[in-house]
């Protein structure tokens, strides 16, 4: 009802209006109460759902941790890391994979004769059906046979990578892959060809790319997990022989590895197949070194003294690159195929490379290599390398001052190295003898040094305790100074333990996928605590493309020098009466203001643990045949039978390593000398639990 203008409501109308308002207010109160009750019930349900989600999350997390523990991995918090280049984020687990020496052989044939390198033989095929059970042990099984001298069947490669993809891919940050992706050239009936080598390199590279690429983008260079490949001595034609580029082989390798190689380094890669890759941008890098230029079994290189030598040029590049990483406050892993030990490298190349490793110990985390198919480590002495370089006599490495001609290559040393390289593809022999030499030449040397240092430090401590105030007064009168701990070591005094630890670096030599013994690979864990904290990184450095463009000019200028003295080494006397010029392939001593790096002191990127995986081929092949007998098809039987398992971890007994600093490896070396039981275990692990012994 409307109210006319100027009229007033009567008492009845006011009462009705008041009652109506009261009803509306009451209804509103009831509604609000009901709504409140409903909301409370909903909240209660929501809380219950959140609790259920939380329970499921905790359960899933617990199950994930159990799976990691079963794989030998350490459960840890995943870190989200911002890429300073792209401003995107990625997850870091603090782990990487090192895999090497796959050697897939497309001519490997199941049930072929092992005596025929597991390759088919026409005569054998005619009589194959007549073989009895007693002859089965001489036939090639599907996944390969340890210690048989055969290369890896393609199935071994396929199922190894499949297992890594399904089991480990989502728990690692990057992959270091140190070469030899081709069969050995050991069958005269089926000689290798250059086209076969390129083709198999491309096949294996494609498999790595397919596993670790980012499938959420069309960019072929976008990887969830970065891959850093290195060139092996069997990845080239003929094997071991590789000259300075540009050549057909360097260009083909770039085409094959195009998506792995930073574009700004293409020109240098074309010259030397060596490059740097940031695996955690702005913080951690890996250098892939073409060790064939340092390898004494390569007949196309001589030493690392002449500017014309590929090894000399590689070391020039390495020196400038390490210094740039130092200025950027980055850390770096070194990687390559042939381990940098005196057994493998020319003496001048070994000394110089070892010295670079030593003088940049503030940034180098470690070095991982392949080639030798045995799981072991060798400590190399940087201070000894410097002494050897400084004391070499002119006639050891001399050059014709006009023609820069070198003395003829030591044919015996080359032949011995080439023979050993060839034996890498054969049935293993004298490997216990080799490991015994490692123990005698390296481990026992360290044992003597550390025991002498320990004895000396004890005597020194006792002498310090005996000094009295009167002794101090007498010393002052006589002009003598009291000795203090931490003072620079006097000439003639034996080094302390810490000085011994600091002068060494570790060459980590990996087991291989090829069944020289049992197939194996390794996961390394490293410290990522505090990786997102602000650091004193200099943001004013030039972009990498500009750095490498400038570096190429620097190297060309250095190599084009016509001064004959600059073609001599710093360690040589040079011309009589002439001024000695510095050899830029020999590093200066590490400046004292740079602290020790992740290999020596626990810090960001220090390695903390490794997990060695292996495939027990005897058991796998038995399980496979048993499943076939049960009626399962080949593919299903292979899926169920093939698996890798943890062989051991670095913190396993009997020689547990709490961390993986240089001092931990040296202390293990001493233990192995002192305890025969530990040495036996070490040998078993070196031969990948295959039961190998020298017969």
Automatic annotation (TrEMBL):
GO cellular component: fungal-type vacuole; vacuolar membrane
Residue stretches spanning the membrane: 21-39
Name of the protein in question: Endopolyphosphatase
Function: Catalyzes the hydrolysis of inorganic polyphosphate (polyP) chains of many hundreds of phosphate residues into shorter lengths.
Record keywords: Glycoprotein, Hydrolase, Membrane, Signal-anchor, Transmembrane, Transmembrane helix, Vacuole
SUPFAM superfamilies referenced in this protein's UniProt entry, alphabetically: Metallo-dependent phosphatases
Organism from which the protein derives: Maudiozyma saulgeensis
PANTHER family in UniProt: ENDOPOLYPHOSPHATASE, SPHINGOMYELIN PHOSPHODIESTERASE
EC number: 3.6.1.10
Region (Disordered): 559-592
CDD domains found in the cross-reference section: MPP_ASMase
Membrane topology qualifier: Single-pass type II membrane protein
Alphabetized InterPro entries for the sequence: ASMase/PPN1_MPP, Calcineurin-like_PHP, EndopolyPtase_N1, Metallo-depent_PP-like
